[in-house]
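Quick question: what would this complex look like in 3D?
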Amino acid sequence: MITLFLVLTMLLVLTQRTVTRQGITVAEEALLTVVAPVQGVFQRFTSSVEGLRTSIKGYQFLAAENRRLQDELAATLALEARLTELRHENNRLRQMLNFEARSEHELIAAEVIARDSSSWFQTISINKGSLHGVEQNLAVVTSEGLIGSILAVSPVSSQVLLLTDNRRAVSAMVQRSREPGMVGVVEADADLPGYLRMINLPRDANIQPGDTIISSGLGGIYPQGLVLGYVLEMVEEELGLLRFALLRPAANFNRLEEVFVVVPSAVPAQGGEGVF
Amino acid sequence: MGAIIIFLLLMLSLALQGSLLALVSPNGVHPDLLLVVVVALALLSDSKRGALVGLVAGLMQDIVFGAPLGFFASIKMLVGAMAGFLAEEINRDFVLAPMLLVIPFSLFNDLMPFILSEFAKISQPFPLLQYLQQHSAGRMLMHFFIMGLIYPYLCRAQKRRLLFPQLENPGK
């Protein structure tokens, strides 16, 4: 009984000290390295089961989806051509203005091999690690937007701390207004799990429902311009001095299968975001 | 040999919990397979071994899913110890006893994070009552049936002394 009490006390102290920890020990790295392949096998099996279930759900739905995606692909190709033009123009203008052009980000594609099912911490595991060039604190995105950052890295797998985890906050701004004073912090909404909120907004902030919220690039973890979410409504803080915006995340956190780790080649290093 | 089998069992449970069982999520409620395995193993041994199995299982969960170290380890260690205390009180060949016992342990497993989060200053993702209403009831039911599925196999393995070879009398 005394041993149990002592171990419990040690664990509680350990918990308190590791809430905000960054990085993992060699022992943890070894365990993650052993577990990752097993998780990968089960995740592939799970994907097969889920794929079968989806197929059974309705061939017609898939056919309609296919038609819609083909239309979207055609539209996207046109958009991409336009985007390429704009990128060239942007580079030319930057050079003209003597701005240092931001480099393209390298993306490392990864598959989600597991996710925490405890409801307390929002993390996923991916099948790429330090051997593939993944490093701690790199941003992780899907085609829809930013989903989080790398929490811990082992040689063949990594843990991603999702935006919906209360331990993470991101410096962000409104894409439409882009006012210098409009940089807020996006964090998980404790009252509405799965949603985000942008806090510390002044009462006269130029922000409205439907606005797109993007990462501001401050802090050096997240590159600028990654879509975080969309404003659903504005809410006044208790004392009425500040407001916060309730956001719908851009990415679907319930359906994360393939993600990309963003390897920035040039990121401004300033304060403003990090693990809380 | 027993320790290796238990470690592999815990690793398998962890991998299943983060993948296949994530599909089984009515209203976002996922079963905690690791908890069921810890309770089952503790009921087949004693409080000391139950606590040790719970500690290892919880630490693995903390590491693999990026939780603060010790968060789930302390909860699962307590669950293992308490379940182990009851090991001598039940008929281990009677599967309904573990199936019923896993229900209060599920509730304990759901309540403890709220107490720990206050201690470790971790913000709570749900209000306690909402969490109990939306998650715990469903999870208790899931654990009841999962225990019914896995316990007979673990009991059979223990009778062949594959899990805890040092225990003299695996059945009562």
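Answer marked as accepted. The CA atoms of residues 26 and 59 of chain A lie 48 Å apart.
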